[in-house]
Amino acid sequence: MAEITFEGVTKVFAGNVTAVDHLDLHVADGEFMVLVGPSGCGKTTALRMLAGLEEISSGTLSIGGRVVNHVLPKDRDVAMVFQNYALYPHMSVAQNMGFALKIRGESKDEITRKVAEAASILRLSEYLDRRPKALSGGQRQRVAMGRAIVRSPRAFLMDEPLSNLDAQLRVEMRVEIARIQRLLGVATLYVTHDQIEAMTMGDRVAVMRGGKLQQVAPPQELYDRPANEFVAGFMGSPPMNLLRVRTAPAEGRLALAVGAQRLELPRAYEASHELPTDADCELVLGVRPEDIEVVDEAGSGPTLRTRVERREALGAEILVHLALVEAGAPSSVAYDEDVAITRPSVLVARMAPQARVGVGDVLNVRLNEERLHFFDALSGVSLARGTA
Amino acid sequence: MSRDTVDVAETDTSVERRVRARRAGRGALFVVMLGVAVVMLYPFWVMIVDSLKSENQFLAGHGFSWSSWRTLSSTIPVLQEVISSTIICAVSILLILAVGLPAGFAFAKLKFRASGVIFLGIVSAMMVPLQAILMPEFVNITRLGLTGGYTGAVLVYAALGTPFSVFLFATYFRGVPDELIEAGIVDGLGYVGALWRLIVPIAIPAIATVTVLQFIQIWDDLLVGLLFIQNTSERPITVGLAVLAAGRTTSIPALMAGSLLSALPAMIVYLVFQRYLVKGLTMGIDR
Q1: Average pLDDT of each block of 10 consecutive residues along chain B (287 residues)?
Q2: CB-based contact, A179 to chain B, within 8 Å
Q3: Which of B176, B186, B199 to mutate to test the interface with A (most CBs of A within 10 A)?
Q4: Which of A36, A129, B2, B96 is most buried by a 10 A CB count?
Q5: Contact at CB, B188 and A100, closer than 8 angstroms
Q6: Separation between Cα atoms, residue A336 and residue B29, nearest integer Å
Q7: How close, in Å, is residue B177 to chain A by CA atoms?
Q8: Does residue A88 belong to the interface with chain B, where contact is any CB pair within 8 Å?
Q9: What angle do the packed helices B115-124 and B150-174 form, to 10 degrees?
Q10: Domains of chain A (ranges plus CATH)?
């Protein structure tokens, strides 16, 4: 067991493509760290560098205090679970699981004992004689896990291990992997593009984009206090609504121009955020879908007048797409290519299924004034004090 | 009748028509394959029947006798020649596999400078016919003093068979996911270990394909054996039969017995490995 440290780790591929750019990340002993981001963000490359399957261009990578930049994969004592499991097709489940131990030269009895132990943790005991071909997707996934845990490695590396499973099995295995990791207490770096996996499994979550680390925090903190627009838009489903707005202070009170509408803000934000005090400064306002509620009449708190454009019933909740009414000056959702939400001046609100809203209705919605987010219009960095 | 019912009825007849057409197609195919089988098997039948006749019985067209087999074994050292052929085949194929497997693995899975060009060079060597390089090859082997026994012939066969095996293995290994090798490497293997313990076991169909095709080619070859093996005691069976046909006997039944004897091993090897052979040759198609 050991901690993992990336210090300024960079990977530049042939053709000058920077896949990972000065990554600083510390995974504590026993910690479950999820590395999340859209495809091509460098998360898998980071993992492969840790495994030793990819050379490090610059920076220092250490496992348990030992720098492993030039250590061969077999001497790093890490176990990896691959996306497509990579089970050895010509070996039985038991042989697959015991293979690393056999290479290490452990005795037959010892291997049998460890494999049996891992199999019972993973509920695989009755399949030990089968070949991978004769197993279901979920069972194969468990064998891949088993191959990793029998070795009692210093770290687990998992590369999207659940992405080949169907939705229901994925939920089960999510719980299962988290359970096993806690049981064994081995430092784990888990790569995924699925933000639900990131939220539910990780002790902490590291969000990456374009080879750069965006934010590392416990899941709830990531959700509540995103460091920038990207993290705000990436975590949460549906993502945070991001509106391009302008400051419009009047009579010493904070207010924003959202299209042609005016949005009054509580004074508390002056202390908690570094908001521009001048008029007509552009910034990005973020509101989570669950922080929007319908009110009868423009009353207290920040309210906007909207028209229902679309209604998606999900059973337990409905998602209501709201367009700003009288959106004179085009205010638009600021974000972006990766999360693919370029819907001008549309807010998505999460409501109870009982909510009586129909397409075309004009609604006054109030934004939860305690849970607003502000980002710099240019850099996308959060304006909250004490983040980033 | 409503429109729906008409549609359903029409679909029914079209399905029936298709089923009937498929059956007719199968029947025709069966007849054609039967014809092919007869054409292929008839020579064997003739070989077997005629080898079991004396010369007089052969001319008369009926009868049964082992005399032609006795003639064969007394004219040429049949057993010795079959053993020679076996040794030549086995050693050549081992060499081909020993070179082809790692080379194919390297071309498929390792990144190195100019690998594409080198691969192309090796593969284009497949196009060079034996006859075109026979004379220079003979000169080379003679200079090395290897024209007496098996060695020269084995080297020539190995050199001729290796490009194809490299090509086949490289193609086969490209279909093996990288993760499999990476998993092995993380588990503690080096590249050699990964090749030997992970890749070779799953490359059995490809190995079988190379073995069968090379076996048939080398076993049936006359030219190399005739030129490069000059010790009569190390002559392969094909050379023996050629000598037999060239004048030691004109007995057709004895020739038939010899031909049958030399054809059998190749057939047996093919029949044993054919299951893998199909797999090896069609690999990549179902993926």
Answers
A1: 52 82 91 94 90 85 85 85 92 96 93 90 89 90 88 92 93 90 92 90 89 91 88 87 76 86 86 77 50
A2: no
A3: B186
A4: A36
A5: yes
A6: 60
A7: 8
A8: yes
A9: 130
A10: 4-234 (3.40.50.300), 241-376 (2.40.50.140)
Interface confidence, given as ipTM, is 0.82
Is the backbone peptide bond immediately before A21 cis, with ω within 30 degrees of 0?
Answer: no
Q: Which residue has the tokens 């990579």?
A: A86
Q: Phi and psi at residue B284, in whole multiples of 5°?
A: 90, -25
* Contact residues for B172 (Cβ-Cβ < 8 A; gap 6+): B104, B108, B203, B205, B206, B280, B283, B284
Sheet containing A318-324, strands listed edge to edge, beginning at the edge strand earlier in sequence? A292-295, A362-367, A303-313, A318-324, A346-351
Q: Which of residues 166-205 of B touch A (CB under 8 A)?
A: 177, 179-180, 182-190, 193, 198, 201-202
Residue from the list B186, B190, B198 with its beta carbon closest to the beta carbon of A88: B198
In what order do the strands lie in the sheet containing A17-27? A17-27, A4-13, A58-63, A66-67
Q: Residue A251's closest CA among A239, A264, A260, A242?
A: A264
Phi then psi for residue B153, to 5 deg, are -60, -40
pLDDT digits (tens, 9 = 90+) for A49-87: 999 999 999 999 999 999 999 999 989 999 999 998 999
Distance CA A312, CA A57 (A): 47
> At how many degrees (to 10) do helices A137-149 and A167-184 cross?
10
Residue A191 touches chain B, beta carbons under 8 Å: no
| Arch. (CATH architecture) of B68-281 | Orthogonal Bundle (1.10)
- Nearest C-alpha of chain A: how many angstroms from B285? 19
Residue A220: closest CA among A366, A114, A334, A371: A371
Helix (H) or strand (E) segment spanning residue A310: strand A303-313
Contact A270, A247 (CB under 8 A): no
**Residue for token pair 């050292």:** B77
* Beta pairing partners, A351: A318
